Task: inverse folding
C-alpha cells in the first residue's frame, strides 16, 4: 500500500472510536473520492482547530468564546449541576429537554478505583466553581454517569466530595430500558427494576 | 454546538462507514485533542490527495505512479485474474498469501439485478485489458465476490461475459466458516456445506 494510506491507517486507527478495519475502509473510501470532495472534507476537518474546551464545564466551545454556549446561557440555572463523564453525554442529555441547569464534565471515571491526577484536577475545578462562583451552595447535583461498577465507585466519591454543597444529590434512575425483553435482561438490571418497581 | 462541529458531523456522517453517532463522538474526540496532534492528523489526511486509482485494476496507487504496485509487480502473473468488488477486498485477499495473479475491482455489484453505466464501463475495461494487453486469453478468472443473491447474480453475469477467455473460471468455495457452530448456522450455508462436503 502507498505510504500515505499506511500512515492514514496508522494514525487514525489510534482514535478510540475507529478500529483498524474501519480505518482501512475509510482510507480507501476517501482516496477514491473526487479530489474536490476530499478537499472539502479536509477544510471541514480543519475547522476543528477553532474548537477548544470551556474552562468552566469542559464542554466544547469556539476558541474566541469565553465560555461554552451552555455555561453562558443566562436562561439556565447554574445552581443545578449535572455531572457527566464525557462531552458527548451532554449532547445526549440535552435531547430529553428536561434539564435546565449546567453541566460539569469529568473527562473520565475513577477506573480501577483510582482517582488519578486528571480526575483530581477536575474535582478541584468543581470545588472552585461551587465555592467561588456559586457561593458554596447549589440546589441540586445530578450524577449522570453510567450504572457500572466503575460508575458506582465514582458516584460514591462524588457524593463524599460534593454532598456538602447541596441537600439534593442524585443519580439517574435504574431499571429496564424501553423495549427491553425480560428474557434478555441481565440480573443486575432486573434486580434494580424489581427494587425500584413503580406502583403508579 | 459550534458550527465547526455541526459541519464536521454533517459532512463526515455521510461517509458510508461512519454513522452520525460515531461521527459525533469522533468530532468531540478530535476537538479535545492537543492542537499539535490535530494538526498531525490533518496532514496525514491531506496525504490522501496524493492517491488515485490504478487505470488497469482500479486499486489505489500513488498519483505519480502509472500502475498500482500489484499490477506493476513483474513477479506476479497477469493471466490469473481475481475479480473483487472493492479495493479493500484486495487487502483481505492478499493476506492469505496464496494468490500470485492480478486483481480487477468492479467497484460495485449488479444491485437489484441492474448493470448500470459504471458497472458496464468496468466490464468494458476488463474486456479491453484481456483483449488488448493479454492477447485475448487468460489462465484463470477467480470470481472473489460475496456469496449473496446479488453476488450470485453478478457472478453469473461475469461468467457469461468473460467465460470465453479462459477454460478456468471459478468462484470462492462456500461452506461453514472457521469456528462456526451448527446451531447458529443459516440454512443456505448449511446446504452448501452439505453439498460440498469433504471426504478427505
Result:
Amino acid at each position: 500500500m502507498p505510504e500515505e494510506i499506511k500512515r492514514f491507517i496508522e494514525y487514525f486507527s489510534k482514535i478510540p472510536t475507529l478500529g483498524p478495519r474501519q480505518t482501512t475502509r475509510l482510507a480507501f473510501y476517501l482516496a477514491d473520492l473526487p479530489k474536490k470532495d476530499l478537499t472539502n472534507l479536509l477544510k471541514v476537518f480543519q475547522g476543528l482547530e477553532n474548537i477548544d474546551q470551556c474552562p468552566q464545564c469542559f464542554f466544547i466551545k469556539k476558541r474566541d468564546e469565553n465560555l461554552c454556549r451552555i455555561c453562558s446561557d443566562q436562561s439556565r440555572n447554574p445552581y443545578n449541576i449535572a455531572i457527566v463523564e464525557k462531552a458527548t453525554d451532554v449532547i445526549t442529555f440535552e435531547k430529553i429537554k428536561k434539564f435546565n441547569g449546567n453541566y460539569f464534565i469529568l473527562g473520565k471515571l475513577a477506573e480501577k478505583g483510582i482517582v488519578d491526577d486528571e480526575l483530581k484536577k477536575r474535582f478541584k475545578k468543581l470545588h472552585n466553581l461551587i465555592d467561588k462562583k456559586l457561593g458554596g451552595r447549589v440546589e441540586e447535583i445530578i450524577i449522570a454517569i453510567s450504572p457500572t461498577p466503575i460508575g458506582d465507585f465514582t458516584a460514591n466519591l462524588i457524593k463524599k466530595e460534593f454532598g456538602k454543597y447541596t441537600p439534593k444529590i442524585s443519580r439517574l434512575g435504574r431499571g429496564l430500558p424501553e423495549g427491553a425483553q425480560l428474557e434478555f435482561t441481565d440480573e443486575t438490571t432486573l434486580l434494580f427494576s424489581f427494587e425500584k418497581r413503580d406502583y403508579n
Remarks:
- Chain A touches chain B through 46 residues (CB under 8 Å).
- Helices of chain A lie at 3-12, 20-32, 35-46, 87-94, 117-133, 149-162, 187-195.
- The radius of gyration of chain A is 21 Å.
